[in-house]
Amino acid sequence: MDKTEHGERCPTTINPAGLATPGGHYSHVSIASGLVFVSGQLPIDSTGRKLTDKPFEAQAEQVLANLASALAGAGSDVTKLAQVRVYIVDIEYWAAFNEIYARWAGEARPARAVVPVPALHFGLKIEVEAVALV
What we know:
By secondary structure, the protein is α+β, with helices and mostly antiparallel strands. Helix content is 22%, strand content 30%.
């Protein structure tokens, strides 16, 4: 961990390989006190292409791939997830997401919320944020 001039501990922030450059004033990952905080991941590929024109399932798979890349970059993985929060633009997508997520997460069963929202950036259909152990 980095230290400030007063000796307090500061989070370490990273933007792991395999993820597009953040589009705003944030980092993809912040690591503090043994925890990995992953910023909301949108269905954007590593080149920065937004998958707005892709079906929900393809967007969900990209978001989970992004989450896996973020975790790996922090020295973590899906088995160390503690909490996952999912935002979807239509509750009708819940069943499809749950199926894709169950395959992706395997035996891992972190706490999770799926929250319907009216809209997401760029007209995308899903966003996922998470907290894991290092």
